[in-house]
């Protein structure tokens, strides 16, 4: 099935908002073997949207659109879709009533503009929105299908998961195999893969690198079954999942299965590590507490880090990072604690401790580790890379991968 995704919004084109809708839809489609053929971002311009929708419906089996379904003047996707599909409309009953009830529960009167949400392309049906007011819209023309979804991520996901994905499930096909790796560079992953499957089969492979690691996308039939087993062996513990999933999901899952509790102590990442962990459903089963000790005084008062140690080695040091992890474990009562400290930049560095220098620590019963990393990129990228390094360190500890962690063992534990 040839599918494409269209995202509508001036704010998306101008990067005034973080646009993850297209990525979410694409990943969801690929999980059922429906790889999108095109992703397009359009401005809030009626003519542009209408003409692009008309072309998309002519070249693709299905088009999924997000954005521009609300009641304000810049929400013109629904009207543009009506134009693209020939101009005929009808009214879907029940939408206004549902909106009125929602506003009544909030103690407000529904704005009159919401009444126009009932006007849709002829033959369309509404897709329930369990989060907001504007429903999704589905319409079919000559065997081509169009889904219109709100741009608000929570509303889009509710409709997509509740209505769109079930409609497409029956058309699933053998999708790409995805191997997710952390701890190897993009070129190292390519070298290992090529050495295993041969240069001739590399055309069926896509290699995508990012802060959360390297993803290998293997097209159906591109890699022999025997080579798949060899890939598992060669990559070993660098693979954190074979298929969908994230490092944080793996860490929470493994900790829960082992009955272990977790805590965090953060400086450079400023709570981002804890936030990433608790974004995983079920995190409350294992995550106890997170400490954000950005200043030196907080490190001492909240985590018990010796002020003399900070004065002697500096807040960005292996000794302080380990002391933070140990302090978080002691104060929270968790089984395992992970810590971060570093210099996110762009300023604050020196010749000895440049911007991008980060330490990640881990403390557990009878074991403590500290990794020193030097990250490139801007402030946000340094912090994100530190988070994923911390998560992978935690994952390696939880799966018992002591050989790769041994070089980072604290001196007193190594003796």
Describe the structure.
It is a single chain. A hairpin with a 2-residue loop joins strand 16 (357-364) and strand 17 (367-374). Helix content is 40%, strand content 22%. The chain has three domains: 3-169, 3-Layer(aba) Sandwich (Molybdenum Cofactor Biosythetic Enzyme, Chain A); 177-242, Alpha-Beta Plaits, CATH 3.30.70; 247-414, Maf protein. With 415 residues, the protein is an alpha/beta fold.
Number of strands: 17
Number of domains: 3
* CATH class group of the largest domain: Alpha Beta
The percentage helix is 25-40%
Q: What is the CATH topology assignment of the largest domain?
A: Maf protein
Rounded to an integer in angstroms, the radius of gyration calculated over CA atoms is 25 Å
CATH architecture of the largest domain: Alpha-Beta Complex
Largest sheet, spatial ordering of strands: 2-1-3-8-7-6
Give the low-confidence spans: none
Average pLDDT, rounded to a whole number, is 91
Helix/strand/pairing category: alpha/beta
Strand content: 15-25%
Total DSSP helices: 16
Task: Give the terminus-to-terminus CA distance.
Answer: 60 Å
Please describe the biggest sheet, giving its number of strands, its sense, and whether it closes into a barrel. Answer: 6 strands, mixed
Q: Oligomer, anyone?
A: single chain
CATH superfamily of the largest domain: CinA-like
Which features would summarize this protein structure in a list?
415 residues; alpha/beta; Molybdenum Cofactor Biosythetic Enzyme, Chain A; Alpha-Beta Plaits; Maf protein; 3 domains; six-stranded mixed sheet; five-stranded mixed sheet; 16 helices; 17 strands
